[in-house]
Here is the input.
Amino acid sequence: MQLNLDMQISTAQHFLESHQHFLAQVAGFFIVEDRVLRTAEGLLSQSQIETMWEASISKVTSILAEQFTRMDAANHHLLVKDYVSLLGATMKKYGYQASSLVEVLEKNKDRYHELLVSDCRKQIQGVFAKDSYEMMVIEKENEYNMNVAALQLEPIHVVPDLPYVAPFSSSVPGACRIVRSFIEDLVSYLSYGVMMNSYDVVKRYLDKLLIEVLNDGLLKLIHSGSLEIAQLVQIAGNIAILERSCDTFLWHAAQLCGLPKRLLEKPHSGLTARAVLKASQNAAFNGLITLANSKIDEFMLLLTSINWTAEETPEHANDYMNEVLIYLDMVVSTAQPVLPREALFKVVSGALSHVSDSIITVFLSDRVKRFNVNAVAGIDIDLRSLEKFAEERFRSTGLSDLGKEPSFKDCLVEIRQLTNLLLSNQPESFMNAVIREKNYGSLDQKKVAIICDKFRDAPDSLFGSLSSRNMVQNARKKSLDVLKRRLKDFS
Here is the structure.
């Protein structure tokens, strides 16, 4: 009987189609020779068979090594690996040394992982591309079991009232299924031989997948510049769910690897990816702040067009502030059901601080050459509307119940102190260190000097005609004049 291993395999696909027959031929030949030898009727001695086995297995491993390098699909690796493992286990039962088969699989472990990660990257990109980033609405029990319960995305163990509005969008269960499939395929590939540390290997590769594929994909979404505020809010909420799911992924890997539960509960069992996802969630929060501030900037452009030398005090808030309030209300309404309260505070407080900074920036800019007390009174009306909104939303979001400091209203302290100073009857008290620290502690003296220098009540002089004002107004003007001189001396 002859064993011919001189196969001319030109392509990986050809090998994939013929590998079962090829490996079965090897196994069959030596199983038959072993049985013939045991009957003492064979033409070959045991040493001759062993020599043939060594030569044959060397040839087999050489062919396998070459073909593995040609394969460009992870499932092809896994398919061939199963038959190689079967060949090794079978021949070992008959006393043949098959360690070289294990070695060739071990050497291709990283290559298999690369291909598997590449497959997962394409799948996750597809999942992200198809997602509208709106909360999933689940109307059927089997949909809930498939998208929530089976993936342990909610702590409850019973189906809630349907339709069920999930706190995540469709890419979350989609990504979780891909990650779990990755774990299962990787454990399957590592099932050759006896690997004492298979869990550690799976955990290391899982960490890389979550960081280099899932997390990087989320960051690309966040920084794409093509998202609306509601979509970015949902992505931030999705990341929170995915970050918590890291524990579920570890449990799944541990179960498949046969790791005892007590070992997984040790501190070293965590994933670096969890901290990385947490950082990406912060990136999403910062992206929300940037996006919200960018939209607010559009509304603040209207501020420069108001009448800065109005003859009468306005009765209502300026148009720009109405637009700002409508937009901020939308941001809070969209973010509150999805974001953790700490994140909600960060986003809303960031937007309110930006409004405050923007108003002061307009006062400082060359676009405002001069302004009078009536314009300041109008800003005061705007600010009161904004402060009322801040107080109401701080209570309605539950942040006041946490004793959260500072509050939303505190984000407006700089523009509030500036407005109070410009409307004060004794503005020169700003130069008193004790009063300044108490009432104007957030104001920068250089900014105050620039702004006060633009403050006019009439076009013909610094304060207009004193005789045309009452005594209180005259006193305030004199005080402001003193403040201007002292601020110039300070500068």
